[in-house]
Amino acid sequence: xxxxxxxxxxxxxxxxxxxxxxxxxxxxxxxxxxxxxxxxxxxxxxxxxxxxxxxxxxxxxxxxxxxxxxxxxxxxxxxxxxxxxxxxxxxxxxxxxxxxxxxxxxxxxxxxxxxxxxxxxxxxxxxxxxxxxxxxxxxxxxxxxxxxxxxxxxxxxxxxxxxxxxxxxxxxxxxxxxxxxxxxxxxxxxxxxxxxxxxxxxxxxxxxxxxxxxxxxxxxxxxxxxxxx
Length: 229
What we know:
The chain is α/β, with parallel strands linked by helices. The chain has one domain (45-228): Vaccinia Virus protein VP39 (Rossmann fold, 3-Layer(aba) Sandwich), CATH 3.40.50.150. 30% of the residues lie in helices and 34% in strands. It has helices at 46-55, 70-77, 90-98, 112-118, 137-140, 143-151, 172-182, 211-220, and strands at residues 2-9, 12-18, 25-29, 32-37, 60-64, 81-86, 106-109, 123-128, 153-164, 186-192, 199-205, 223-228. It has an eight-stranded mixed sheet with strand order 7-6-5-8-9-11-10-12, sandwiched between helices. The protein has a four-stranded antiparallel sheet with strand order 1-2-3-4, covered by helices on one side. Strand 3 and strand 4 (32-37) form a beta hairpin. Helix 1 runs parallel beside helix 2 (70-77) and helix 4 crosses helix 6 (143-151). The radius of gyration is 16 Å and the shape is globular.
């Protein structure tokens, strides 16, 4: 590994590291891997690839959480208009300088709730990929935020939320999914196989369609999906 740079971020020390053999780069925050990006900007993690497949058919997308910006990069290169929102503004500079995030990706420094409350825009897709060892998913994705997510989603749109399962309580996924169901959204949970990783996606949509395509995409990347009733 080769250290490319270090930064003082809002939530602690950020280190950019490059693998000598592959050229892939890691975004580490306080020593915890937040992003793994292949040379050129492609996503190196399966859960990011799955989020990309689930969101890529929308023309206008809001993403919460930047890191190395691989999801934003992939969606932007699919022709989507992408807005990335993060309260750690230095991440935008890092993603562009070291992780190949295109300049055309719109970057907004704000926390998720503040942005959702203030923007009038309706998005065709919304991605949420925020967190860390001390992050409280249930507090951040409380009922008020779930209501706002639904309000900012187009009728044919889809929400994909990444949850790092090693950092949440056993029933957190179900509780967050239930909040989205209370907003009359169709909801699925896609679990990554333990041998491959420790991520789960909560996927929600206003219209109960596209389930077969979502399931096929999840299965192809080693995820098991189930409908939340």
